[in-house]
Amino acid sequence: MTDNIEKALNDKGIELPKAAAPVASYVPAVEVNGLLHISGQVSMADGKLITGRLGDGMTLEEGQQAAKACALMIAAQIKLALGSLDRVDQIVKLGVFVNSTADYADHPKVANGCSDMMEVIFGAAGQHARAAVGVASLPLGVAVEVDAIVAIKPA
Predict the structure, then answer these.
(1) First vs last Cα of the chain: how many Å apart?
(2) Domain that holds residue 112
(3) pTM value?
(4) Partner residues linked to 88 by β-bridges
């Protein structure tokens, strides 16, 4: 199957990471009735976790980069599950979880790191509904975790 989206990313110098294996009892993706549900992908770059807490030593820009890394890992999981990013019809919804202090209020700005990258990857099909919430902690101490619901084209 062709993968025009991945070729376009390569032309822009954007490389997808290797899809991460689950760290607990779940699968990375489940396809049901034309929707692909992607399990939460934690912030990771170059095989290393991006840890930290927004509002406690981690800057907004660092949080956005962590969220961007989640977007790239979601795309890697989509490719693994579907064989090609070209099968994406629409990114339907993202759930963005931000490891933050109780008084931190810029969760939507952090989440934009992921949302903006989805549009870079998928164009108009990357525009989506979204929730961005702050949490007291995330698995493995990561800064951001994102899950996704993706409408897919028939094979």
Answers:
(1) 10
(2) 4-8+27-152
(3) 0.96
(4) 152
Specify the pairing of strand 88-99 against strand 144-152. Answer: antiparallel
Nearest to 100 by CA among 43, 60, 41: 60
Buried b (16+ CB within 10 A) or exposed e, 98-125: bbbeeebebbebbbbbbbebbebbbeeb
Q: Rounded mean pLDDT of 43-63?
A: 97
Structural domains in the chain (count): 1
Give residue-wise pLDDT tens across range 92-113: 999 999 999 999 999 999 999 9
Amino acid at 134: G
The Cβ of residue 32 has, within 10 Å, a number of other Cβ atoms equal to: 7
For range 60-87, the mean pLDDT: 98
